[in-house]
Fold:
Amino acid sequence: MRRRLYWLWIGCAVLAARVEAGEEAEPGAERLRPVAIVDGAIPASLTGVPGDPARGRALVVDRTKGLCLLCHAGPFPEERFTGNLGPALDGIGDRLAPGALRLRLVDGRVLNPDTIMPSYYSLAGTTRVGAAWRDRPVLEPQEIEDIVAFLATLRDTPSERPAP
Amino acid sequence: MRRSALLVLAALTVADWSAGPARAGEIPPAERRSGFDTMSPDIQAMQRDGMANPALLWLEDGADLWAKAPAPDRPACAGCHGEAGLAMRGVATRYPAWDAASAAPIDLQGRVNACRRRHQGAEPYPYESRELLGLTAYVAAQSAGLPITVPDDSRLGAARAAGRALFTQRMGQLGLSCAACHDDHPGRRLGAAAIPQGHPTGYPLYRLEWQGVGSVQRRLRNCMTGMRAEPFGYGAPEFVALERYLMDRAAPLAIETPAVRP
Structure:
């Protein structure tokens, strides 16, 4: 409860600051939780609640929700027709720490302004968003945490593979 | 902590990423390829074979409409233009073109409807109607095999620039642009679908997914919906501008109407 009030306060403060500064508010942006980027990563959880790798996997393979497999292949033997616009996700947990994964999901444009990867938790710079999707991030913060937790389990090193 | 969090949020919120240019830029003319080239052989055969191409049903409707007077005292298309095979040959290679009467660029289906209003005293056909698709396909098919040209008409400059801007602009909840796939990643796959260079060489065309013939605007609306963007309405000047840019970008590929696509 205290936590919720805290974020609410932040939302109001940001809105007030923007109005004061005469900036146009990004509609819905006040609803998004603030994120702190440190050295190419978002080290802190967006929610404080540990992600659930099983829910994360379900989101990753869901082609209407996570959309990941439209662009990425990976260790998903039951999934056919994965795309190849992005790198394969095999071993991604070896290559990227959770904080680095989190930033790439939240807003990869911070690292590469030209990236084709959608920003899953940012409304910055969006235009002509369809009515059904307006003022909403692609994923909710806990969904991001679930996906980060799942991707962290994708290891090439067998000894580090978590028990099934 | 509060202060830094605020600053980060503010930075993420007000930063304007949409102005970023496409990474790879335009495809050089010698490297332009029709989506036909990457289709499966059976769909290629369906397009090539006059008897198997399902769009021919629409084309036959178009041929009938070309010859038929809209009212007893009004001329048919053929009444003014004569035989389509002669009069309409090459026309589709240079559309959208400048329409002096409306002082705006006009696409081929817009031209068909403008003729109906101005010369035939008839109501325009609705977008995506069998009549408009059939007549437009019939006119465009008279240019099949001819190379798309870049009209030397400075009045089209504004539409070209607007079309290019739309092509490279990120839009929708997913923040994608046409260029992000079709300039930067043709040949790769989005899920099961091979990404073509995105040249409108064969419209109106038969799409297996549609189980019917549709216009380039229908295809563009599909892509915009995929980006989770609000599609432009049928007949919007944005679509005419985008098609003008796409045709410049496709030259000198040959017109394929009526094409077949998956």
